[in-house]
Amino acid sequence: MSIPVIFLSQTSLRCDLVQELLSSQQSSSQGEQSPCAEQARLIIMSAELEIEPLKTLWQSILELNIPQLLIDKLSSQAWQLLLNAPLEQSQVDKLAAIKSVGLEAGIEVNYLPEGVAPFIREEGALACFDMDSTLIQVEVIDELAKAAGVGEQVAAVTEAAMRGELDFSESFIQRMATLQGLDESVLAEIAANIPLSPGMPELIASLKQLGFKTAIFSGGFDYFAGQLQQRFGFDQVFANRLDIVDGKVTGKAIGDIVDARRKADLLEQLATEYNVPMSSTIAVGDGANDLLMLAKAGMGVAYRAKPIVREQAEFSISTLGLDAVLYLLAQSNDS
Predict the structure, then answer these.
(1) CA dist 188 to 20, 134, 140, 238, Å?
(2) Ramachandran sector of residue 106 (left: φ over 0; alpha: ψ -120 to 50; beta: rest)
(3) For the packed helices 51-62 and 16-24, what is the interaxial angle rounded to 10 degrees?
(4) Which CATH number, 1.10.3720.10, 3.40.1440.60, 3.40.50.1000, 3.90.180.10, labels domain 125-328?
(5) Directed axis angle between helix 95-104 and helix 51-62, to 10°?
(6) What's the distance, CA 17 to chain centroid?
(7) Domain residue extents for the chain
(8) What's the CATH fold of domain 5-115?
(9) How far apart are the C-alpha atoms of 227 and 11, rounded to whole Å?
(10) Which of 62, 64, 301, 331 has the most CB atoms around its CB within 10 Å?
(11) Phi-psi bin for 149: left (phi > 0), alpha (psi -120 to 50), beta?
(12) Where in the sequence numbering do the catalytic residues fall?
């Protein structure tokens, strides 16, 4: 295990926690450097970075034998460790164990081999989101089912589908059927009380400032996704449409179901429409029906996701709010 040559950014030079970590490891900075967008990096995040968990994680990172790195404090919750070169495959193979050590210490680790350059482009980039349990904290179909008196029954099916244990489209049709006869007025009542995911408004506003196009790909319903679009300015929305006749839900959806394959196809479709390379796309979701979309995107982020999704997604956010996506883009918050 070799000790890397360490440089600090301006924000890290002023950070007592960074200095304490280096002192505890009998290391010192070789001077100041500025981050470069093209540099490979490890992003480490926690609800609050503290010295003892950092020491534990640092020992694991040293086992990668990185010759040189730059520590850049993004906020009290996130640092990025910029590498002098992308990790070799033998080093990448060790990342799973390092991520596990980090999670046990309460710190999430993500690796960006190409830095953030693909996502900070003058031509813009594209970010696409699942809605239920991603942009919002609930599954809307479960809320509708509660109003229809079949909440527990439908919630159990939803959970199994999100874990990948049931075919999404088949389970969706089954769940929809239980809503037959629900009064249309219930939709407005539920929409008025839907809790947003923490950090969602801040994330979407920041992405727009960075030049991103934003879209919702939802296996839920366009009535609710459309309201999010109006409130927060999403560029496009694709979701299922409830069939309503004489003020009552019929228990069916109109048109094709937005399933896993449809989400992945839509990502590619919008990237072409906006002339954005796939390497400059971000997809964020939590359920098994998001896996194809996450795999296709340049950055596929599992957000507070089901175990099968966390295991397969390249990037993950498990404890912080949705605005932690900004840390993956090296956006700082020094407040």
Answers:
(1) 53, 20, 12, 19
(2) left
(3) 50
(4) 3.40.50.1000
(5) 170
(6) 27
(7) 5-115, 125-328
(8) Alpha-Beta Plaits (3.30.70)
(9) 39
(10) 301
(11) left
(12) 130, 132
**Per-position pLDDT tens, the chain of length 335:** 678 899 999 999 999 999 999 999 877 788 888 999 999 999 999 999 999 999 999 999 999 999 999 999 999 999 999 999 999 999 999 999 999 999 999 999 999 999 999 998 888 899 999 999 999 999 999 999 989 888 888 888 888 888 888 888 888 888 888 899 999 999 999 999 999 999 999 999 999 999 999 999 999 999 999 999 999 999 999 999 999 999 999 999 999 899 999 999 999 999 999 999 999 999 999 999 999 999 999 999 999 999 999 999 999 999 899 999 999 999 986 54
pTM of the model: 0.93
H helices within the chain, ranges in order? 10-13, 16-24, 51-62, 89-92, 95-104, 140-147, 151-162, 168-177, 185-191, 200-209, 222-232, 260-273, 291-296, 307-312, 325-328
Instruction: Write out the DSSP string of 42-58.
Output: EEEE-SS--HHHHHHHH
User: Cβ contacts of residue 216 below 8 Å, gap of 6+?
Assistant: 128, 129, 130, 131, 135, 225, 228, 229, 234, 236, 237, 238, 239
C-alpha distances (whole Å) from 126 to each of 76, 201, 272, 331 are 27, 17, 10, 16
Q: Identity (one letter) of the amino acid at 119?
A: F
Please give the Cα distance from 48 to 75 (Å, whole number): 9
Length of the chain in terms of residues written: 335
Joined together, the tokens standing for residue 329 give 């883009």
